[in-house]
Write a structure and sequence with these properties.
Two copies of one chain form a homodimer. With about 210 residues, chain A is an all-alpha fold. The first copy, chain A, has a domain of about 140 residues: Tetracycline Repressor, domain 2. Chain A is about 65% helix and about 0% strand. The first copy, chain A, contains nine helices and no strands. In chain A, α5 runs antiparallel to α9. The longest helix of chain A has 27 residues. The radius of gyration of chain A is 20 Å and the shape is elongated. Chain A binds a DNA duplex (18 and 18 nucleotides) through α3.
Chain lengths: ~210, ~210
DNA sequence: GTCTATATGGGGATAGAC
DNA sequence: GTCTATCCCCATATAGAC
């Protein structure tokens, strides 16, 4: 993301000092390479400092990871909430869901190294780190469940749809996109529309007309 | 899976000798703990041998991993192919898709430590290992694409559905289930039906009647 | 706030006895 | 086929100079 000034040694970005600079480069590295392969030495090198210096800002590697995981959920939660809140009052269920899906996918694929790092490494980190990230995860999940339950109560969603199960399926499907998304084959927004088309109406040929 | 005779020391299964025994325990450990956290020492301990002995059967840790990844795809590929082939001639598109989805999810959640290990660790292994697994993956993907394209040619699926993209979405969604599936909340088969319901017909309330 | 130097532990892999 | 013993490397983390 940050361009490297042309005179710099390879593999070392310009100094990104301070706690936030370290988090930024660490999030990018975790996103790209996964949890285990990213060492403090590599984070330090990418930030333009030495490994020992990291301990002035953080108490442990896991402390860095927890900060990144939490920030990743915070970003996507805020984006999704904003996107839905910004819709005109009285928007239909399909419109609301499309907006929420698009916001989630944008944060994951376009915006945020923190969100994508979260999705990428959550399954790889030690249990204590996962536990530390749980509260913010639960809050985001609750936001989705509230949204979906509201739509179901309005009659926009099938009455027999299990909200929790559908939310797990939907978020799981969206997050899995990270593994194969290629911006050269289409934008995140275009992908959002395809997801929405499929989840809202399915893939079968319709005999009767439908929204 | 294998019961431990009651007199055995903790953390050590009964001897599972030979190459296949090592692969079995390694697949289970990779499934449970991910790639990086499973060491040769732990595999050896679980197999009831010492770490050095593994090198009689395998040239490296990566050789073990490649064997497990390949076997994981082979199992799910075979199961899916069998399930579809076993259907009565002239089965409808919805029936065929339901059978394929069910077979995939069964292999992943009920059957095979190899398949679930593949899904769990593929994103964590070194590039050379991923590359080695690519041919069998491509073959499985081709099986799905052929199935879906055939259904689309028959008019069972929407004509504007991008097959490759849908296949990535579907397999990604099914595989993501591994992260949250809890057999106490319902069987893999029940989950398959929910997936099929959603992907085939969507989640919106239908105004007109539909299959 | 960052450096150098180092303690400590664990990993994959190899050699040779049995 | 499995063992013990060991090499070598790299990880996190700490201590103290600057």
């Amino acid at each position: 993301m940050a361009e490297v000034p042309s005179g710099q040694p390879q593999g070392q970005s310009r100094q990104k000092v301070g706690r936030d600079g370290i988090l930024d480069v660490a999030a990018r590295l975790f996103r790209e390479h996964g949890y285990a392969h990213v060492t403090l030495r590599k984070i330090a090198q990418a930030a333009g400092i030495k490994a020992g210096s990291i301990y002035y800002h953080f108490g442990s590697k896991d402390e860095i990871v927890v900060a990144i995981l939490d920030a990743g959920i915070a970003v996507v939660h805020e984006q999704m909430h904003q996107a839905v809140s910004a819709l005109p009052a009285g928007s239909g269920g399909a419109t609301i869901l499309r907006a929420a899906i698009r916001a989630h996918l944008r944060a994951l694929l376009d915006f945020s190294d923190y969100t994508s790092a979260n999705v990428r490494i959550f399954g790889q980190v030690p249990q204590v780190v996962r536990d530390a990230n749980l509260p913010v995860r639960r809050a985001y999940e609750a936001e989705w469940d509230a949204l979906l339950s509201g739509l179901q109560a309005q009659g926009a969603l099938r009455a027999d749809l299990d909200i929790r199960r559908f939310r797990l399926m939907l978020i799981g499907a969206l997050n899995a996109t990270l593994e194969w998304f290629d911006p050269d084959r289409g934008s995140a927004d275009a992908l959002s529309d395809t997801y929405a088309d499929i989840f809202l109406d399915g893939i079968l040929t319709r005999t009767g007309g439908q929204t």
